[in-house]
Amino acid sequence: MKKLTVFLLYFIFAAGNVSAQTEMNVTSVDAETYSQYLEKDWKNLIKTGKKARKSGIDFYYLDYRLGIAFYELKKYAAAVKYFEKIYKTNKDDQTLKEYLYFSYLFSGRFGDARLLADSFDRKLKAKLDIESEYSFIHALYFSTKQDINEEYKYTSANSEQVEQINVTGQSWYNLSLEHLAGSRTTVFHGYSHLTINNNIRTADANLPAEYSEQLNQNEYYFSLKYHLGKGLNVSGGIHLLNTSYFAQDPVPVSYGRRMVYPVLYKYSENSFVGSLNISKSFSVFNTTVETSVSNLNGNMQIQPSLSLRIYPFGNNNFFSETKGIYLTEEVGGVYNYYPAIKQSFGIKLFKNSFISPSVTIGELHNFTEYNAFIVNNDLDKTKLRIENYLNLGFAEGRFNLFVNYQYNVKENDFDINGNENSAEYINQTITGGIKWYFRKY
Questions:
Q1: Count of CB atoms within 10 A of residue 370's CB?
Q2: What are the sequence ranges of the domains in the chain?
């Protein structure tokens, strides 16, 4: 009986000692991390916090200090994790709201930042220079593109009958607007115009052996994006194209004193592209699933793609993105497949300015980009694309100048005496423009 009593007393004492030790650990962790917070010793604060959490110690101010430590080290994706956790239990802390808002912004989660800002009171919005009401026009975009082609017109011998289309001049411009409808919905739409001058050689007995053609393409694009929350967005787009073709006989006809160039043909055709895009941001990753359906150049295309973007440092200073594309096109009941892969990087140069080089390998033909905003429906295939995008931001990022350079290896198909041939040539494009944001998120 005496031994049992001693054992029970020892057990009770040991249990009490463990309980006191746990409370002591919580207290010591609180004191140590608070001291590190005051000294701005962010790296050691994170080490202390991680050790405490592994030991099962977790409390409100520990998460708060860890979030601030990651934020001060510019690891915004990691900071979001802690700020989101404590925001669930305390939505009245104005400082916490600021930290979470900027952590969203600086980790590229603009939809989450916008949704959170909608809950701010007027005083906090005024402090952060966030508009209390959504303006009708949120942003304006204007861009123009010029193409430079290497000479690739086939030089034929006297006995050769050549059928070939060569682009001799090409230009494009776009004007777009963006609207914010409430805290979750974004509307984007714009008008584009494309002009192409072609040199055509043909074996058609009803047409001259060689003549010039002018192509004019009017385009309207509309997209709607909805932010579901927690880094999840869904968007859809539709791109309508009206392409007109016009050609005159190069040999004039005399009507009295006037010389008239007869019209060979003048007609137009319509085509469309529809797209669906779902993207999800989590931790240092962003993944996007996208697909488009189109009827470009009289054929049907389906183009699914999957991309993964990684921010290895937990901020927007650098990212790497890999995108896989698999286009299927039906031509006269026969299905053709065009896989491609795109690797791109983003590098922050200084505040609100960045550069993004990329390379795309594959056979790009009747394909779309950026949720079907860009439609590539020219007749020649692109086999390799190397490009570099530069954005320079001014006025806290509200006014942006950008330029995009592309180096394309393209392939032109043509016939010689009825036999199929092809020729590679270099196409270079320069696109420049402005992005003007009237309001912040």
A1: 12
A2: 23-127, 139-437
Of the pLDDT bands very low, low, confident and very high (cuts 50, 70, 90), residue 8 is: very low
Same fold: 23-127 with 139-437: no
| Distance in angstroms (rounded) separating the CA atoms of residues 296 and 179 | 29
Taking the C-alpha atoms of residue 421 and residue 396, their distance in angstroms, rounded to an integer, is: 53
Q: Strand pairing of 399-416 and 367-369?
A: unpaired
Measured CA to CA, the distance from residue 404 to residue 434 in angstroms comes to 12
H/E stretch holding 234 reads strand 232-248
Among 116, 102, 95, smallest CA distance to 70 is for 102
**DSSP-derived 3-state class of residue 360:** strand
Q: Which residue has the tokens 């200084």?
A: 350
Superfamily of domain 23-127: Tetratricopeptide repeat domain (1.25.40.10)
- Residue 379 CA to residue 52 CA, distance in Å, equals 63
State the angle between helix axes of 76-87 and 60-72 in degrees (0 to 180), rounded to the nearest 10: 150
Q: For the chain, give the longest Cα–Cα distance.
A: 136
Question: Cα separation of 69 and 50, whole Å?
Answer: 12
Distance of CA 288 to the CA centre of its chain: 9
Q: In this structure, which long-range contacts are made by residues 197-200, counting pairs with CB atoms below 8 Å and at least 24 apart in sequence?
A: 197/167, 197/168, 197/169, 197/170, 198/165, 198/166, 198/167, 198/168, 199/153, 199/165, 199/166, 199/168, 200/164, 200/165, 200/166, 200/247
Q: What is the pTM of this model?
A: 0.88
Task: Note the CATH number of domain 139-437.
Answer: 2.40.160.40
- Which tokens in the block code for residue 413? 């198909």
* Strand spans (E) along 313-380: 318-331, 334-350, 353-364, 367-369, 374-376
Q: Which residues 6+ apart lie within 8 Å of 86 measured at CB?
A: 60, 63, 64, 67, 96
Tokens of 96: 């916490």
At residue 214 the predicted structure's pLDDT band, cuts being 50, 70 and 90, is very high
Q: What is the mean pLDDT of residues 131-146?
A: 86
> What is the Cα 96 distance to its own chain's centre?
29
Helical spans, DSSP H, in 211-333: none
Q: Distances from the Cα of 95 to the Cαs of 213, 248, 306, in angstroms?
A: 63, 69, 38
Residues 6+ apart with CB under 8 A from 198: 165, 166, 167, 168, 212, 213, 214, 215
Q: 């505040």: which residue's tokens?
A: 351
* CA of residue 334 relative to chain centroid, distance: 32
